[in-house]
Amino acid sequence: MRTWVDEALASGRPRLELEFALANRDDPTVVDREGARNREAVLSLESSLERVAPAVVDGPVPARRISEIILDLAFGLAVRTTRLLDWSLTDR
Q: What is the DSSP letter of 58?
């Protein structure tokens, strides 16, 4: 996971995706397309979890929710570590 996060951050892609999302959040076509892409990513992660960690899937938290959490965490780490937000706000 750490390797994937490092590679994703190094690519600069998270910053571009955030800028794109903010610029297009009122465009229903883009919102629908990006929503579909997000759902596809969640389903892909869910499938991977079911294959490589069946014990986790059988736990109290559904695999789909775990997949959503992983994506949310990756996005949050990308935003925080690329300093897209005012870094001084986290120091208070």
A: T
